[in-house]
Write a structure and sequence with these properties.
With 498 residues, this protein is an alpha/beta fold. It is 38% helix and 21% strand. Strands 13-14-15-12-11-17-18 form a seven-stranded mixed sheet, with helices on both faces. Strand 11, helix 9 and strand 12 form a beta-alpha-beta unit. Helix 3 crosses helix 4 and helix 5 packs parallel to helix 6. The longest helix is centred in the N-terminal third of the chain and has 22 residues. The radius of gyration is 25 Å and the shape is globular. It starts with a strand and ends in a 16-residue tail after the last strand.
Length: 498
């Protein structure tokens, strides 16, 4: 259940059982990758690097386009597997995850041909200077379980478009679609060893990948805690790190906002992927005069969200990733309730879908959780400060614009945010003053391949997607060409005069 050097391999680690979190059914079993498997995968990538680096940008672009075609041909298969392994709705997988990943491949096919340095020029007498943008070598990337295919795309495509080879470690819970991506790359004409995928846990496979001496750059998406550990490991060998970490996105609703639009945006933005999204709206900061109307409308909309079997096209929201994670989300909501918070809706484990039909399995074997809205909390509350990573939105009222901005920034995170207003000045102020890598105005969630994605503060550094991502996967070289005809160069007299 691992892929390197253009073929599948069995792992050498412990046996792991795959479970569909929406049904509780066991869907497979495989052997996790260990340090020996990591070493073999990295060796494969290292061997493939010289020839792949030598390709022209146009040749790499053609491979990327061929890969996009391969993925398009398997789109239904990818969506079904993505839903099966994560519990997300098939509609989200088909309409968001898979098309977004394919678009990412096409974007980087074009961007591969735009990797240019500065124009040549004379900056020292009788010489010409120019810059070259070059790949790094073998990249080691770690992707999370919430968007397995998309996160693989965000890691793999800019890396190989720039001329690197890569070893991607997926979550042990969600290896399937990343393996198909690697297989599709071989079918598209990528040489064996350019794109390699292993599945394993963080302590065994992840740390072996980050610390491997032949891995020159590490990219990680996941929790801030693990991100700090990766920085520590990479610093020991002085290698480059790119981190996209946690989030606690504010959704600021000013007193001139369209409340219906804001409420709908809050529900979509907080419940996408069952709230298991680092950019999800988690803190609604609402003008006091609209607070009741906003929470009432959000409650109404959340109560209408169809929680159910992911394979049903009518389902809006599937399950969480696992029983363990569902227990964590539920415990945070329960502690808020015990502390006196108001639970407007949700705050419980559902047993039936929107039609009143029993959900598959039972509450002891499946990982469903109801869409939840909470208010009546303080800013030192756990649900205000910590990343819940579930379908939970916390709402708080504000009185002045200054207070709204202060509350938006009252978090160690800074990945994404949104502001809802019909005023130009407020739009510009929110865009400038909210401390986040992305600020949406009158919308929350859309992400496109052409624009950068990355965080401020404890949400990490570096960018995924867009041309900016190449800054993570390339290095810039200054080339100096001397044009003197006389072997004696005047500046040398400052060192010796004979």
């Amino acid at each position: 259940m691992h892929y390197w050097n253009g073929t599948y391999y069995e792992g050498s680690g412990e046996t792991f059982t795959l479970v569909n979190p929406a049904t509780g059914e066991r869907t497979g079993e495989y052997t996790l990758a260990n340090a020996a498997d990591v070493n073999d995968a990295v060796a494969s990538a290292k061997a493939a690097y010289p020839a792949f680096k030598a390709l022209t940008p146009g040749e790499r672009a053609e491979l990327m386009l061929a890969l996009a075609t391969q993925l398009e041909a398997r789109a239904d298969e990818l969506a079904e597997l993505e839903s099966l392994q994560t519990g997300k709705s098939i509609r989200l997988a088909k309409e968001f995850d898979v098309p977004g990943s394919i678009d990412n491949a096409k974007f980087f096919a074009g961007s591969a041909r735009q990797l240019t340095g500065l124009a040549a020029g004379t900056y020292w007498e009788k010489s010409t200077s120019m810059t070259r943008r070059e790949p790094l070598g073998v990249v080691g990337s770690i992707a999370p379980w919430n968007y397995p295919l998309q996160m693989a795309a965000w890691k793999v495509f800019p890396a190989v478009a720039a001329g690197n080879t890569i070893v991607l470690k997926t979550s042990e819970m969600t290896p399937g679609t990343s393996l198909i991506l690697a297989e599709a790359a071989t079918a598209a004409g990528f040489a064996p060893g350019v794109i390699n995928v292993i599945a394993g846990d963080g302590l065994e496979a992840g740390e072996a990948l980050i610390t491997h001496p032949d891995v020159v750059m590490s990219s990680f998406t996941g929790s801030t805690k693990v991100g700090r550990r990766i920085m520590e490991l990479a610093s020991a060998k002085g290698s480059r790190v790119h981190l996209e970490l946690g989030g606690k996105a504010p959704l600021v609703v000013f007193d001139d906002a369209d409340i219906e639009a804001a409420a709908r945006g809050a529900v979509a933005g907080s419940l996408i992927n069952s709230g298991q999204d680092c950019t999800a709206a988690t803190r609604a900061i609402v003008a006091r005069e609209h607070f009741e109307a906003f929470t009432d409308r959000v409650t109404e909309l959340m109560n209408g969200v169809r929680v159910g079997t992911p394979t049903d096209p009518a389902t809006d929201m599937g399950s969480l990733i696992s029983l363990t994670h569902r227990s964590r989300v539920a415990a945070m909501v329960d502690r808020a309730r015990e502390a006196g918070a108001t639970i407007h809706c949700g705050g419980e484990i559902p047993t039936s879908n929107h039609l009143g039909e029993a959900l598959p399995g039972d509450t002891e074997t499946t990982a469903y959780y109801a869409p939840t809205l909470i208010s009546g909390i303080d800013t030192d509350s756990e649900v205000w400060r910590e990343e819940i990573f579930g379908p939970v939105l916390v709402a708080l009222a504000f009185d002045t614009d200054d207070e709204a901005i202060e509350l938006a920034n009252d978090t160690p995170y800074g990945l994404a945010a949104s502001a809802w207003t019909t005023t130009t000045n407020r739009t510009l102020r929110a865009a400038a003053d909210i401390e986040a890598g992305c600020v949406w105005i009158n919308e929350h969630i859309p992400i496109v391949s052409d624009m950068p994605h990355g965080g401020y503060k404890a949400s990490g550094f570096g960018k995924d997607m867009s041309q900016y991502s190449f800054d993570e996967y390339t290095q810039v070289k200054h080339v100096f060409i001397d044009q003197h005809e006389d072997p004696h160069h005047e500046w040398q007299d400052t060192v010796f005069t004979s």
